Amino acid sequence: MNGRFAVRLAYRESRHGLRRVGVYMASITLGVGALVSIHSFRDDVARSIQDQAEVLMGANARLSAGRPFPDSVRSVVDSLREAGVATSDVTTALSMVLAPRSGDVRLLQVQATSGGYPFFGEVKTDPEGLWGRRSLERGVLADPAVLTQLDVRPGDTLAIGRVRLELLGTVEDLPTDLGFQTAIGPRVYVSQTAMEAAGLLGFGSLARYEVFLRLPERDDRTAIGDRYRTVLEATQVRYTLAEEQARQLSNGVRFLGRFLALVGLAALLLGGIGVASAIHVYIRDRRPGVAVLRCIGAGQWSIFLAYLIQASALGFLGSLGGVVLGSGLQRVLPLLLGGTLPVEVTTRFSVTSAAAGLGIGIWVAAMFALIPLLQVRDIPPLQALRRDFEPGRRRADPVRGAAYAALVASIVVLCVLEAPEPLMGVGFALGLGVCLALLGAVAWTLSRLTRRFFPSRASYPVRQGVSNLFRPQNQTVSVTLALGFGAFIVGTVLEVERNVMDDLSLSFGQDRPNVLLFDVQPDQVEGISDLLPDDVRSSVTVAPIVPSRLESINGRPVEELRADSTAEDRPERWAVRREYRNTYRSDLGPAERLVAGRWWDGTPGADDPTEVDAGDLPRVSLEVEVARDLGVGLGDTLAWNMGGTSIPSVITSLRAVEWDRLEPNFFAIFEPGPLDFAPQTIIMVARIGDPERRAGFQRSLVAAFPNVSALDFSRVQEAVDTILSRVRQAIAFLGAFSVLAGVVVLVGALATSRLQRMREGALLKTLGARKAQVLGVLFAEYLALGTMATSSGLLLAWAASALMVPRLFEVPYAPHLAPMGGIWLAVAGVTVTVGLASSRRLLRRPPLEVLRDIAD
Amino acid sequence: MMIVAQGLEKVYTSGGRPLPVLQDIDLEVAPESFVAVVGPSGSGKTTLLGLLAGLDEPSAGRVLLDGQDLSTLTEDQRAGFRARRVGFVFQTFHLLPTLTALENVLVPLELRGQVRGVRQRGTELLERVGLGDRLGHYPAQLSGGEQQRVALARAFANEPAVLFADEPTGNLDQETGSTIVQILEELNREARTTLVLVTHDLALAERGHRVIRLGQGRIVSERPGRMADAAKTTP
Fold it and tell me: In 3-state terms, what secondary structure has residue A660?
């Protein structure tokens, strides 16, 4: 092999004809751009989180629990404070907040702070300087969203529980805000005294208790965790360090980032297909020249090397463009993912991401170019003399085999490197391969069917246009793969999102309950029922909630069962430690099905109708999944701690529950009677269809029963919708890169077949075709191409969603036509537009000019 | 069809400079006659043919086909005129690779929007050129001579009043070439078509009524061919 000759040849050859291949390199640019932007963005977010760990928590460490701290933990906090540690109590409760002036009412988070929280970062308020205990003694602050939701402005009064407070201003920036938290419900900020006066922290209320600690020394932080571990674990109070929280957050973001990176990688690999197809055509055009070079003594490997150098150089240029593009896009991603990110992201040019993108881009370009480049070796010198001379095909070519193996290995390695987990990477590579193979197969079948069954009575331009897809050396398959893959990604994302949202609106939909009242005291049920509209009252579900903890199973304390590592049926940690919200009632609910044992009235279970004799003990019905995780079945005894009293029970039935329905459902249901006098609150579920009446009811509810909270499901639906659509946006944005990569492949394919199309157009004109007829042929061709590509992609998207939606999201699948129609319109539209735009000259030039050119 | 060219000129721009390809061409071709245009490469033969067929607009002068001044027609009108009255045969056959032999023959008819009886007409023409058994073959499956015969069938599909042939035998061996010329002449005679043929092949040129020689874009000589002599000697 003559290296110097190869380099010189590469340079000289690159002056002609490479420009057309250059178009394809734009697909590498797009892929690398997507990848670099995601890598840099991931780095940006992770760095921002780590940099702001303390600011994000507002402290160095935090104690937290879902109920008031027991005395043992209180005394720990007191002793820390005495030892000079700064502490700050933060209590957050859910409550209805009413704005008397506008009459609007919303379920909001009410947060009371004391002490210097947050210890790090600065809270910005409008007007300035309102954050702090003193101002909160005079009134409340609120997140800006509260102002629009309640239609209030500073100076207005807010009714929170039993108190009325003046709205002083807004909290514009609380550094501890983790973006998605406020998506659940915006907050109002009150003083601890106001919180207590409002009466929001009563029995059974949904509140969160936290104590923030300032512990500048790392050793102190870990020492505290170690010293008090036993007492904290026993009382189920969590101790979290700021750096731990940051790590968890960055892990979450990293996972999302890596997932997005896979989508970006897909775009790059599509670019690879573009490169392969460009090089294939390029080499085909170079055949006569290569044959002449072979005639005059150039070795096949030297020529091969020359072209490999060209491909790599173009890969380098394409990737370099990608790095520039990616650094720009890096700034767009935070905007798209806006509210779902935990921190404000500072962008910085990431050298490692850029270098990685550059390296990956060149590698992908070279690897995909390799296989078509190997054709160079097969061009016989004799072809210089006789163009139609075709050499006999090589049978087994180990080099070609090795090139394929290297390509596959490269793809797998890249996927593994980019994926959140290695196995997922292998799965993704496999999925990608299967997907492209299926796309190819679908496209092939569609094209065969088109050719076979296309109506011969269709008008001439349509028939000519469709048959153009099969012209010799056509690139229909590579264009179909590239465009189809983009359509596949975007289509799948849309289909999955639509189905999940459909299921959600079904859950919130017609006849399903849409208002949930909680923290209702037993003596308030009647009064609340009176407030409800007449037609709603009869259908209200009322369920008592008895907060309970498991004490023992079949007489053995749960701690002992957990500690016994030899026991095969050791109960799951979550099932043992959680706080149960049990209920009692006489009938099965609409979302329940009895599978084993017998209901109180003797109704047998579907699978196992065994009747258990409970003797004098209270009977309880367990949900099947939790029974499995507890390792219990019919006839086992469970002892519960309910408000300090121990209540025994016998499992007499097991139920299967549809959890995704919004009726109140429970792990454990007692028979009526034994729990009548246990400490309890009530939840009520109703459906008030008309939004006006729903709002009216909530207003009168807050006025009459300030301690009761009402959750309007349509707001929850909106919140979920917002978060889902943000994530969809990000994925679709990157999916669009695949579509763009597809468009680039299309542009390249059009560029390489330009001469042929010019000739055909000129010929048609010579034979008497009017411009409109030539245009019709082109239109039909590009529309057919776009349609074939999109329908292949969309068919696959449907199949993938039909597989994914029920398994991953446990939601029934139904295909959607409208969004798919939209994708078809977009992709086919782009194909037609790009195609016709590239044919402008063809239409303008007189046929003689074209025929003369070709004759030359 | 009567073809008249008056003061025809064509100037192309090459490298930013004007490049005259045809100058001062005055020409009359009588209906049903066979005129051959000869001359060395680059003498403007193909350009002249193209201008006579209205494939491009002359830089000066005009072309009249049966009294119709082509310069008064738009490009689409000229295309329509060709679809109705003009046939073409090229050196490199120029068949549409994605269409079968029969479909290629049908193109001019379909461009005219003709639907009825087109397949029968196409089949007859292909049978006439000896390709009755090749109707469903694609160009790539045909030899050069067969491709040119398909092109001939296509050229006569719309029963043209004038046929322009640009080196129709240029890409064929002598034997195949003479078969093509034979078919061309027969079809021409049967359809009473005016034939303008550009060729390098002097023997072929001699077979027409007139031989026009071009040199550097001008007509350098004009003389009668063998057919003219035959016409004279025929009583």
Answer: coil
Q: Divide the 235 residues of chain B into consecutive groups of 10 and give the mean pLDDT of each group.
A: 91 84 93 92 88 88 91 86 86 81 87 82 92 89 90 90 89 85 87 90 89 93 83 54
Pairing of strands A592-597, A645-657: antiparallel
CA distance B231 to chain A (A): 32
Contact assignment for A768 to B81 by CB distance below 8 Å: yes
DSSP state of A301: H
Cα–Cα distance, A398 to A395 (Å, whole number): 10
Name the percent of chain A lying above pLDDT 90.
Answer: 12
b/e burial code for range A595-634 (CB count within 10 A of at least 16 → b): ebbbbbeeeebeeeeeebebeebbbbbbbbebbbbbbbbb
* Chain A contact set for B108 (CB, 8 A): 767-768
Q: Which of A488, A522, A536 is nearest to A686 (CA)?
A: A536
pLDDT surpasses 80 at A344: no
d(Cα A237, Cα B36) in Å, to the nearest integer? Answer: 105
Tokens at residue A352, please? 């490692």
The token duo for B200 is 């390098």
* Residues of chain A numbered 747-806 and touching chain B (CB < 8 Å): 759-760, 763-773
Name the minimum distance, in Å, from the CA of B46 to any CA of chain A.
8
A767 contacts B111? CB cut-off 8 A: yes
Do β-strands A556-557 and A238-241 pair in parallel, antiparallel, or remain unpaired? unpaired
Residue carrying the six token digits 């404070």:
A81
Is there a contact between A767 and B88 if contact means CB atoms under 8 Å apart? yes
Residues 6+ apart with CB under 8 A from A792: A439, A442, A443, A446, A480, A484, A487, A488
pLDDT, tens digit, 9 for 90 and up, residues A316-326:
998 999 999 98
Greatest mean pLDDT among A125-134, A199-208, A537-546, A843-852: A537-546
- Chain A to chain B, count of Cβ pairs less than 8 Å apart? 82
Tens digit of each residue's pLDDT (9 = 90 or more) over A600-617? 998 898 888 888 888 889
B97·A471 Cβ contact <8 A: yes
Does the distance separating the beta carbons of A468 and B47 come in below 8 Å?
Answer: no
- DSSP-assigned letters across all residues of A591-637: TEEEEEEB-TT-PBPSSB-PPP--TTSPEEEEEHHHHHHHT--TT-E
Strand order in the sheet with B17-29: B17-29, B3-14, B60-65, B68-69
Instruction: Find the closest chain B residue to A772 by CA distance.
Output: B76
A847 lies within 8 A of chain B by CB:
yes
Cβ <8 Å between B79 and A768: yes
Q: In angstroms, what CA-CA distances link A545 with A93, A443, A480, B79?
A: 18, 58, 58, 86
Q: Go through A804-837 and write b for each residue having 16 or more CB atoms within 10 A of its CB, e for each that does not.
A: bbeeeeebebeebeebbeebbebbbebbbebbbe
User: How many angstroms separate the CA atoms of B97 and B126, rounded?
Assistant: 17
Question: Which residue from A467, A468, A768 is facing B83, i.e. has the nearest CB?
Answer: A768
Pairing of strands B194-198, B162-166: parallel
Averaged pLDDT for residues A341-351: 77
Closest approach of B115 to chain A, Cα-based (Å): 9
Q: What is the pTM of this model?
A: 0.66
**Residue A93: C-alpha distances to residues A8, A109, A182, A238 (Å):** 75, 6, 14, 18
Residue linked to tokens 């319109």: A825
User: Could you tell me which of A336, A724, A810 has the C-alpha nearest to residue A497?
Assistant: A724
Helix (H) or strand (E) holding A488, with range, is helix A476-507
A339 has a pLDDT exceeding 70 = no
Which residues are registered as beta bridge partners of A167?
Answer: A140
Residue A737 contacts by C-beta under 8 Å, 6 or more apart in sequence?
A30, A31, A33, A34, A263, A264, A267, A486
Residue with tokens 């490469």: B41
Say whether pLDDT at A268 is over 50: yes
